[in-house]
Amino acid sequence: MEDKNELTESAAGRAAEKTEPKRRRQEKVGLVTSDKMEKTVVVRVERQVRHPKYRRYIRKRSKFMAHDELGAQIGDTVKIVETRPLSARKRWRVVEIVQKAS
pLDDT for 55-68, tens place per residue? Predict the structure, then answer.
């Protein structure tokens, strides 16, 4: 009898694992630095990191290639979201143009 109880408890545990919510996709806001490709833009994202020794804040930059169906241009501020791999280097997608270039 105890063996059946153990089996049903483990099955219930697996069912609970499947109903857990999925991980939220990462979102970043950055500046479009290149729109030379078709349906792809390069987005530069800046962040501030505290230096471990000197305790001053340093600006770090990262470049992401993002799929763009909205038609963002150089100088636009855009919001990008993580997505499945679309090509060898493209794993982000433009979801919103926050501010158009003036």
Answer: 999 999 999 999 99
